[in-house]
Amino acid sequence: MKKVICILILLIAGNILKAQQIQFTISVRHSECNERNTGSAEVNVVPENPPYSYLWNFGSTNKNVSGLASDDYTVQVTDSLGNDTLIYLRINEIPCEISTALVFTPNGDGINDTWSITHLEKYPDNRVLVFNRWGQKVYEHEGEYEPWDGRDALRRELDPTSYYYIIYRDKNEDKSIIKGSVSIIR
Question: Within 13 Å of residue 118, how many CA atoms lie on the same side as its CB?
Answer without folding.
Answer: 10
